[in-house]
Amino acid sequence: MAEHDEGVWLHGGAQVTLVELAQVSGLTEELLRELVEFGALAPVTVAVASSEWCFSADCVVRVRTAARLRTDLELETPALALVLTYLERIQRLDTELRHLRAQLSAPRR
Q: Do 62 and 84 meet the contact criterion of CB atoms below 8 Å apart?
């Protein structure tokens, strides 16, 4: 994977295309399409005129993680999709756990 020295600020509401995801991650468009087919990535919209997928800006971190995992662990696409799905689930559960702990530690009225 090529080094990415350029920084880009994206807000949560921003959208990126499949081509842009491929550029920032170093993954091929074909691999990204396969990750969509396996359910590891989900486009938020499809541009009708060009039938091009658009993704939330949050996917940038996800595809960069995918690129690192694929390189470091030499994962095939199905395994990569599974790992990404599990990592997202762990992150959601961790967020929920922190929220619940905060509720328990809040003073009662």
A: yes
